[in-house]
Amino acid sequence: MVAPRHYLQFKDFSREEYDYLFARTKWIKDKFKRYERHWPLADRTLVMIFEKQSTRTRLSFEAGMQQLGGAAIYLNTHDSQLGRGEPVEDAAQVISRMCDLVMIRTFEQDIIERFSRHSRVPVINGLTNEYHPCQILADIHTFIEHRGAIQGRTVAWIGDSNNVCNTWLQAAEVFDFNVHVSTPPGYEVEAERAGLYGNSHYEEFADPMDAARDADLVTTDVWTSMGFEAENEARKRAFEDWQVDADMMCAARKDALFMHCLPAHRGEEVAADVIDGPHSVVWDEAENRLHVQKALMEFLLLGCMKNDA
Ligand code: CP
Ligand code: NVA
Q: Please, what are the domains in the chain?
């Protein structure tokens, strides 16, 4: 049996593969907007395993699979044997014999790595403590739609050096752009955990205003990610000065975009007048999860396709 291709972190794909995926996403999205049927995955089944909550990831994968002609099955920790200690390796053997594709949202990256090693079918990371590759796939597609190529641009990451931040840092290495990161002391980037080859594509700033200066894109995320709830109060105190507000957007380029993977907490990591203001593209960003993941699922199951008919 040929080993399946997985998408577990952003650096799993090459720049050329991303170029294909973004072109394909545009084609799939345009066709969808014209209400034209595109069923390349008829009779294929996606299993979605959620060990953490979700709105966008579940909806975009489930709707996306249906729109490609296939079916999607939702499993979670509470009502499957996964929550009762069945070894992840055993679960992978069984689940991957009954479906064509698996998407997992879980805690440590190690869990999805172990699952994928025992899976007969491609596995997609739908968020782990370390990474959220599908999110940055959508974010970069959104940037390209609004501003063109991201190569050579500057992205300002304000706040926690979490799964979304780590994925931006990997993407910067793949696409050759710069990330200006500003985190409170004690929450800095851990290059090894982020899976980086070096630090040539990011720079750390003590003051978030300095990180935002002249950025093409300013982005942030919740101060407390899922799984870290016990740290919530300490984090609220530590992150107080790391809110993306109107002054910060003024420090960025005049035409800078604002993105947030959502869900957002207005008044914490972002001011309401920024997320609901003219720089914000968060709704396009959320919608694009659907379109990029359709291209991703098609690619993993069928390889490169021609953008015709
Ligand atoms: N951005 C994102 O992954 O959202 P959900 O947690 O709602 O899936
Ligand atoms: N960093 C957040 C992203 C949620 C989509 C979390 O992991 O909870």
A: 10-132+286-302 (3.40.50.1370), 135-281 (3.40.50.1370)
* Contact indicator for 218, 242 with CB cutoff of 8 Å: no
Residue 289: CA atoms inside 13 Å, Cβ hemisphere, count?
Answer: 25
Q: Report the predicted TM-score, pTM, of the whole model to 2 decimal places.
A: 0.97
Query: Residue for token digits 């709105």?
Result: 55
Residue 203: partners with Cβ closer than 8 Å, 6 or more residues away: 178, 179, 180, 181
Cα–Cα distance for residue pair 158/149, rounded to 1 Å: 22
- Tokens linked to 232: 């919530």
Top mutation candidate among 50, 52, 54, 168 for ligand 1, by most atoms within 8 Å of CB: 54
Ligand 2 pocket, residue 221 CB under 6 Å: yes
**Dist CA 201 CA 186 (whole Å):** 21
Sheet containing strand 71-76, strands side by side: 71-76, 45-50, 101-105, 123-125
Each residue of 142-183: pLDDT tens digit? 999 999 999 999 999 999 999 999 999 999 999 999 999 999
Tell whether ligand 2 has an atom less than 6 A from the beta carbon of residue 174: no
Q: Which residues, in sequence order, are CB contacts of 85 under 8 Å at separation 6+?
A: none
Which helix (H) or strand (E) segment holds residue 274: the answer is helix 272-275
* CB distance 236 to 184 below 8 Å: no
